[in-house]
Amino acid sequence: MEEANQSVVHEFIFQGLCNSKELQIFLFLSFSILYLMTVVGNLFVVLLIITDPHLHSPMYFLLANLSFVDFCLSSVTTPKLTTDLLKEKKTISFGGCMSQILCVHFFWRR
């Protein structure tokens, strides 16, 4: 009789980009600044197009949609990446990983 694998995965362990604490802090600051610029820029574009009546045309509607999708897509994985750069134990739960994959696929296909 054949034995089946009965193990269950509860979390994944990230190996990380590097082991150097100084480089991790540098990467944390770099990714945080880039993420902040992405969020502020995309939200500014969306709010500007919504509030200005002269920009209510199909071209600007598509531009606002693109900015919103870019904001959502960058907000799926970047916060977890940046917080894990500062943690000693870099893990993600199975449910958290699956929800990230679902959100990335959802926003990527928009």
UniProtKB/TrEMBL annotation:
Primary localization: membrane
Limits of the G-protein coupled receptors family 1 profile domain: 41-110
Alphabetical UniProt keywords: G-protein coupled receptor, Membrane, Receptor, Transducer, Transmembrane, Transmembrane helix
Annotated GO CC locations: plasma membrane
Family annotation (PROSITE patterns): G_PROTEIN_RECEP_F1_2 (PS50262)
Segment forming the signal sequence: none
Bilayer topology: Multi-pass membrane protein
Pfam families: 7tm_4
One of the record's GO molecular function terms: G protein-coupled receptor activity
Compartments, as annotated in UniProt: Membrane
Keyword S-adenosyl-L-methionine: no
Residues that span the membrane, as ranges: 25-48, 91-108
Coiled coil: none
Name the UniProt record assigns to this protein: Olfactory receptor 4K3
